[in-house]
Amino acid sequence: MLENNIKTVQDNIVRAAKKAGRNPQDILLIAVSKTKPADMVLDVYNTGIRDFGENKVQEIVAKSQVLASDIRWHMIGHLQRNKVKQAIEKSCLIHSVDSVRLATKISEEAVKAQKTVEILLEINIANEETKYGFKAEDAYDVLKEIAAMPGIRVRGLMTSAPFVDNPEGNREYFKHLKQLCVDLKAKNIDNTSMDFLSMGMTNDYMVAVEEGATHVRVGTAIFGERNYNI
Ligand SMILES: *Cc1c(COP(=O)(O)O)cnc(C)c1O
Fold this sequence. Notes:
Layout: H1 2-19, E1 28-32, H2 38-45, E2 51-54, H3 57-66, E3 72-75, H4 84-90, E4 93-97, H5 100-112, E5 117-122, H6 139-147, E6 152-158, H7 171-186, E7 192-198, H8 205-210, E8 215-218, H9 220-223
Parallel strand pairs: 1-2, 1-8, 2-3, 3-4, 4-5, 5-6, 6-7
Helix pairs in contact: 3-4
Bound molecules: pyridoxal-5'-phosphate.
């Protein structure tokens, strides 16, 4: 079942990429394994997937202890400052940098660990009250400030679009984020590359790929529904 799910998602990514005249190789599928047990992660790993997304550092720590060391863990959820040290140890990319305070802490811990930490700035593209992230109009100022911090390299932007029944409803948001990323890249700020665009989840990843996503974060379509009550 998991194997079929992966195949379906991969085929859909290829189709969406081709439709938009993009190379499917330029899109990384991140299997979002939050709340799912390590044995399910292993099943997905065995289909060839190496990139997994979690929204809690504790889950990355627990799963990385029992799973292969060549897994790349992506931190995609709101990160508390007291978890930063572990997050930079265990993850390859922090997608969810949503405040200057958090970036400051990441910078401090990166310097201590003598590392350069790759991050994305989370943008609240639809200005939803319930969501974390910077406002699009603040992105340039925030990027300049964060890019100047030692130990940090800003690779691009991330967003979680609104939950909608019809994914076409999010196309304008994905277009907006892509344009924002292009505009920021053109500023050529030191320690930024702005070549990553993390957008698209189970409901809307095909539209996101058509609009330029380089990283899609897919959970339910691979692992099935999540049960938060266990
Ligand atoms: C849970 C989550 C996903 C995956 O959501 P699905 O709808 O299950 O694909 C993607 N991104 C973030 C930030 C998440 O928290």
